[in-house]
Design brief:
The structure holds 2 protein chains of 2 kinds.
Chain A (H helix, E strand, L loop, with lengths): L20 H5 L4 H29 L10 H37 L7 H23 L13 H4 L4 H28 L12 H33 L12 H35 L6 H14 L15 H29 L8 H24 L1 H7 L3 H31 L1 E2 L2 H28 L13 H31 L1 E2 L38 E4 L4 E4 L2 H7 L1
Antiparallel strand pairs in A: 1-2, 3-4
Chain B lengths: L1 H9 L11 H32 L17 H30 L6 E8 L2 E5 L5 E2 L2 E4 L3 E8 L4 E5 L4 E5 L5 E6 L4 E7 L12 E6 L3 H10 L1 H4 L2 H11 L2 H4 L19 E3 L5 E3 L2 H9 L22 H15 L5 H5 L2
Parallel strand pairs in B: 1-5, 4-10
Antiparallel strand pairs in B: 1-2, 2-3, 5-8, 6-7, 6-9, 9-10, 11-12
Helix pairs in contact in B: 2-3, 6-9
Classes of the chains: A mainly alpha, B alpha+beta.
Chain lengths: ~550, ~325
C-alpha cells in the first residue's frame, strides 16, 4: 500500500483545516464559500428541476392533468425564477468561479474575502425571500414580471421581486470582487494574454454584472413602488407605460443571458484544451470574443420587442446588432473545434459534456438566427420555438458547461475521483433526454403553439407527449450523475494533483488544495502548454516533465 | 414510430400559408434553415471526425506540431458568417416592412383584448367574439387592451402583434384562402391565457357582407331566447360560464335562473331578471360564493334589448321540464 505521490501533501487541506459548522458559516476561504455556493445552487437546481417535471407532467394531456391553470402558472414562474436567478446566473461564477479563480491566479484568495462571504449571504437572503413568496402565494407572472399584469395580480410579487433585487446585489459584489482580483492579484509574470480563458470569461461576465444589474435593481424597485404605493410608472391605469418596463427589464436581462453564457464558454475553453491534450487554438480570438460579446450584449435588448410596437427603425437596428453578437460566439465554436485537430482527444466525462455543449449550443445559436431576423421572429416569438431556443442555449449551453466544469474540478475540490463509467452514462442520458425534450418543442413552436399555455389544441398533443418523455430521461440522467458524485465522496479513490494533464495553475497544488492554496508559489507560464505534463502511472496523474527533459523534447 | 409519421404528415415546420405575407416569411425561414443546417452539419461533422481521427488510444501519438493560431483562418470564419447574417438581417427587415405596412384601402376592424377573450367591433358597430373577414381584401386591425398586455397571433397568416392597454397597435393581413383559422393570445395574461382563443373566418367573395348583415340584426330576425344563445356565444359569456353544469371561472348558467344562489361573504339572492341584469352591468355588486371577483362590466357594451334576450336564454336553461322547442315556439 503506497500513498500516491500527488496526494502526499493532502493531509492538511482546506476541508479539514478547521472543524465545526462555525468554521464553514464564517469562513473567508474562497474555496469553502465556493463549496457553500455549490451546495445551495445545486439545491436550487433540484427545486427548479422538480418544477420542470411537474410542468411537463401537467402538459402530458390538454386541459387538466395534475393541477389547475393557476397552479400551472405559478409552476412555470417558479421554474423560471429558480433556474435563472438562483441557478444559472450565479452557477458558474459564484460556485465554480469562486473556487477556481484565485487558484488559477496562483493567489491565496479573492481580493475581498469578506465581501465574498457577504455575496453568499445576500444570495441566501434573496433565495429565502423567493421561498417565502412560494409559501405565501406563489407568483404567477412568469419570471419576466411583465407589467401591468405583475402590478395587478393577486400574488406575492413584492417579496419575489425583492428577492431578485437582493440576488442582484450578490451578483454585483461577486463581479466586483472578480474584476479587482484579476487586476490586482495576477502574478507579474501572468500578463493578460497569459491568463486562462476561463478568467477571460469571468472578467467579461463581471463587467456585465456590474453595469447591467443595477438597472434591474432600479426596475424592480419601481415595480414595488407602483404596487405598494400606487405610483404610476408602468400601469396605464395610473398614467404609466407598460412597454417601458419591458425596455428596462430587457436592458438588464439580455446582457444577463451573457452573464450566463460567457463563463460557460470559459469553462468549455478549458475542457476542450485539456482533453484534446494540446494548446488551445486561437487564444486571442477566443479571449477578445468574450469582451466583444460583453460589449455588444448591451445593445440588443430591443430584440425582445419586435412585436410590441417599437418603431421599424429601432427594430432594424436591434436586429442587425443581434446578428452581430452571433459572430464572436461562432468564432469561439470554430476555435474549439480547431483545438481538437491534431490533438489527442480523451473522451473523459468533462469532455463528453464539452462535446454535448458544442452540439447543443450549436443548435441554440443557429436557431437564434430565426429569431434575430425580423420577419420570421414575428411568427416565432412567444411560441415554443423560443422556449426550445433558450433552453438549448441556457441549458444545453450554460447548464451543460456547468456540469462539465463540475465533473472537471470535482477531483480538485473534493480530492476524490468518481466512477468514469457511471458519470459517462449520466452525461449520455442527459444529452439524449435533453434533445428529446426540446427538439419536439421547435417543431410545435414553428407550427404556432404559444408558450406559457396550460391548455392546448389536440393537434399539439404528440409533441407534448414526446417532450414529457424526454424530460424524464433527462431526470434519470441527472439522478445517475448525482449518485455518481455522491458515491465518490464516500467511496471514491483519492485524486492526484493533476488527473487530467491540464497546465493551468489550479492543477499545480494538491487535491484538495491546502488552506493557503499552494504549498509553494507556482510559476505561471503559458496556461495551455500541456506538453510539459506527462502521465506518471505511479502518481496516477500527470506530473511536470523536468525542465531538462522537456528542453530535450523540444 | 407514430410520432415521426405524424410529423411527416403535418409538415416539418411551418403551418398552412393563409395570407399574402406567409410565402415571403416562409422563404426566409427556409433560407435560414438551410444555412443553419449546413453550419450545424459542418460543426458536428468536423467535431466527430476529429474525435475519431485524433482520439486517445493505445499506439496513437499526436503529431509533434499543431498550429496554435491562424489569423487568415480566423478572419475567414468570422467574415463568411458575418456576410450571411447580414443578408438575413436585411431580408428579414424587407419582409417585416411588408408585414407592418397596410395598404391604404384596408377594411378596418377594432379589436379589444381582455381577460380572456377577444372582441371585434365592425364598422357598423356590431361586436363579435370571432373575427370575420373577406378573402383577398386587406384587413387592418386597430387593437387595444382593457387590462393587461395580450398578443394577437394567427399562425396561418404569420402575423402577431402585442395588444397593449392605453395605446393602439395595428396589424394587417390579406387572407388568400377561404376557411377558418386559429387565433391565439401569445402574451401571457393570467389564469385563462391558454383559453383566450378565437378564430378568423375568411369568407368567399360576397359572403362576408351577407354574414355581417345577418349577424348585426340578430334581435330582429330571431326569437329572443335564440338571439340570447347567439349573444352568449359571441359576446364572451361562454368563456367563463358553462351551460352544462361544468365548472369554470364563473358560475354555470345551468339551472341558475329562478334559483337561490349563495353569495360570497354570506347571504343569498334569487337569480331573477333584476339579479341577472345587475350581474351583467355591475358584476362586483354580488359575487357568488366560491368565485373570484374578476368579471368586467358590460355597461355600454350590451344594449337593453340584448340583455333581455340573454335573460330569455337563461330561462330556457333553468326550465328543465320544458323542452327548448316549446320555449322557442312561443
Amino acid at each position: 500500500m503506497s500513498v500516491p505521490l500527488g496526494n502526499a501533501l493532502a493531509a492538511d487541506n482546506y476541508l479539514n483545516h478547521e472543524k465545526g459548522w462555525r468554521s464553514w458559516l464564517f469562513t473567508l476561504d474562497h474555496k469553502r464559500i465556493g463549496v457553500m455556493y455549490l451546495v445551495s445552487i445545486l439545491a436550487s437546481f433540484l427545486l427548479g428541476g422538480i418544477f420542470a417535471l411537474l410542468i411537463r407532467m401537467e402538459l402530458w394531456t390538454p386541459g387538466r392533468t395534475i393541477m389547475d391553470a393557476h397552479t400551472y402558472n405559478q409552476m412555470f414562474t417558479l421554474h423560471g425564477a429558480a433556474m435563472i436567478f438562483l441557478f444559472i446566473i450565479p452557477g458558474i461564477p459564484a460556485a465554480l468561479g469562486n473556487f477556481v479563480l484565485p487558484l488559477m491566479l496562483g493567489a491565496k484568495d479573492v481580493a475581498f474575502p469578506r465581501l465574498n462571504l457577504l455575496s453568499y449571504y445576500l444570495w441566501v437572503v434573496g433565495a429565502l425571500l423567493a421561498l417565502v413568496s412560494i409559501v405565501t402565494g406563489a407568483v404567477d407572472t412568469g419570471w419576466t414580471f411583465y407589467t401591468p399584469y405583475s402590478t395587478t395580480t393577486n400574488t406575492s410579487v413584492i417579496s419575489m421581486t425583492l428577492g431578485a433585487f437582493i440576488l442582484g446585489f450578490s451578483s454585483i459584489f461577486t463581479g466586483l470582487n472578480f474584476i479587482v482580483s484579476i487586476h490586482k492579484l495576477r502574478p507579474p509574470s501572468m500578463t493578460w494574454f497569459k491568463m486562462p480563458l476561463f478568467l477571460w470569461g469571468l472578467y467579461g461576465t463581471a463587467i456585465i454584472q456590474i453595469l447591467a444589474t443595477p438597472v434591474l435593481g432600479i426596475t424592480l424597485l419601481l415595480l414595488i413602488a407602483e404596487r405598494a404605493l400606487g405610483v404610476g410608472i408602468f400601469d396605464p391605469a395610473l398614467g404609466g407605460d407598460p412597454v417601458l418596463f419591458q425596455h428596462f427589464f430587457w436592458f438588464y436581462s439580455h446582457p444577463a443571458v451573457y452573464i450566463m453564457i460567457l463563463p460557460a464558454m470559459g469553462v468549455i475553453s478549458e475542457l476542450v484544451a485539456t482533453f484534446s491534450h494540446r494548446h488551445i487554438f486561437g487564444y486571442r480570438f477566443i479571449a477578445m470574443s468574450s469582451i466583444a460579446i460583453a460589449v455588444i450584449s448591451f445593445l440588443v435588448w430591443g430584440h425582445h420587442m419586435f412585436v410590441s410596437g417599437q418603431s421599424n427603425l429601432a427594430s432594424l437596428i436591434f436586429s442587425i446588432l443581434t446578428f452581430l453578437v452571433a459572430i464572436p460566439s461562432a468564432v469561439k465554436v470554430f476555435n474549439w473545434i480547431a483545438t481538437m485537430y491534431k490533438g489527442e482527444v480523451e473522451l473523459a466525462t468533462p469532455m463528453l459534456y464539452a462535446l454535448s455543449f458544442l452540439f447543443l449550443f450549436g443548435i441554440g445559436g443557429l436557431t437564434g438566427l430565426f429569431l434575430g431576423a425580423l420577419a420570421t421572429d414575428v411568427h416565432l416569438t412567444d411560441t415554443y420555438f423560443v422556449v426550445a431556443h433558450f433552453h438549448y442555449t441556457m441549458f444545453g449551453g450554460t447548464a451543460i458547461a456547468f456540469f462539465g466544469g463540475l465533473f472537471y474540478w470535482w477531483p480538485k475540490s473534493t480530492g476524490k475521483l468518481y466512477k468514469e463509467a457511471w458519470a459517462r452514462l449520466g452525461a449520455f442520458l442527459i444529452f439524449i433526454g435533453f434533445n428529446t425534450t426540446f427538439l419536439a418543442q421547435f417543431l410545435m413552436g414553428a407550427q404556432g403553439m404559444p408558450r406559457r399555455y396550460y391548455n392546448y389544441l389536440p393537434e399539439f398533443a404528440p409533441y407534448h407527449k414526446v417532450s414529457t418523455l424526454g424530460a424524464f430521461i433527462l431526470a434519470v440522467g441527472f439522478l445517475i450523475a448525482a449518485a455518481t458524485l455522491v458515491h465518490s465522496l464516500f467511496a471514491g479513490e483519492p485524486a492526484p494533483a493533476n488527473p487530467w494533464g491540464a497546465a493551468t495553475l489550479e492543477w499545480q497544488t494538491t487535491s484538495p488544495p491546502p488552506h493557503d492554496n499552494f504549498p509553494t508559489q507556482p510559476e505561471p507560464g503559458d496556461p495551455y502548454e500541456v506538453d510539459k505534463w506527462v502521465y506518471d502511472p505511479a502518481a496516477r496523474g500527470y506530473v511536470l516533465v523536468p525542465a531538462a527533459a522537456s528542453a530535450g523534447r523540444a | 414510430m407514430s410520432f415521426l409519421s405524424f410529423v411527416a404528415e403535418k409538415g416539418m415546420f411551418l403551418p398552412f400559408q393563409g395570407s399574402t405575407v406567409a410565402p415571403a416569411v416562409d422563404a426566409l425561414f427556409k433560407f435560414i434553415f438551410w444555412i443553419s443546417a449546413f453550419f450545424f452539419l459542418l460543426i458536428v461533422g468536423l467535431m466527430l471526425a476529429f474525435v475519431i481521427r485524433f482520439r486517445k488510444r493505445p499506439g496513437y501519438t499526436k503529431p509533434a506540431h499543431a498550429p496554435t493560431h491562424n489569423t487568415l483562418l480566423e478572419l475567414t470564419w468570422s467574415g463568411i458568417p458575418l456576410i450571411l447574417v447580414m443578408v438575413m438581417g436585411v431580408w428579414g427587415f424587407k419582409v417585416f416592412l411588408d408585414i407592418n405596412t397596410p395598404p391604404a384601402n384596408a377594411y378596418e376592424v377594432q379589436v379589444t383584448g381582455q381577460k380572456w377573450k377577444w372582441l371585434f367591433t365592425y364598422p357598423n358597430g356590431y361586436v363579435d367574439e370571432a373575427l370575420h373577414v373577406p378573402v383577398d381584401q386587406p384587413v387592418r386591425l386597430v387593437m387595444t387592451s382593457e387590462d393587461v398586455i395580450h398578443s394577437f397571433f394567427v399562425p396561418a397568416f404569420r402575423v402577431k402583434r402585442d395588444v397593449v392597454p392605453g395605446r393602439y397597435t395595428k396589424l394587417w393581413f390579406r387572407a388568400t384562402k377561404p376557411g377558418t383559422y386559429q387565433v391565439f393570445c401569445a402574451e401571457y395574461c393570467g389564469t385563462g391565457h391558454s383559453d383566450m382563443l378565437t378564430s378568423v373566418a375568411v369568407h368567399e367573395p360576397g359572403g362576408f357582407e351577407k354574414w355581417l348583415d345577418q349577424a348585426s340584426n340578430l334581435l330582429n330576425t330571431l326569437p329572443p331566447a335564440e338571439a340570447g344563445r347567439k349573444l352568449y356565444q359571441s359576446r364572451g359569456c361562454a368563456q367563463c360560464h358553462s351551460v352544462d353544469g361544468s365548472g369554470g371561472i364563473g358560475p354555470t348558467f345551468k339551472e341558475l335562473f329562478g334559483h337561490k344562489v349563495a353569495l360570497r361573504g354570506g347571504g343569498q339572492a334569487v337569480a331573477d331578471e333584476d339579479y341577472v341584469r345587475e350581474s351583467i352591468l355591475e358584476p362586483m355588486a354580488k359575487i357568488v360564493a366560491g368565485f373570484e371577483p374578476v368579471m368586467p362590466t358590460y355597461k355600454g357594451r350590451l344594449k337593453d334589448q340584448e340583455i333581455t334576450a340573454l335573460i330569455a336564454y337563461l330561462k330556457t336553461l333553468a326550465a328543465e321540464n320544458r323542452p327548448a322547442a316549446e320555449e322557442k315556439g312561443r
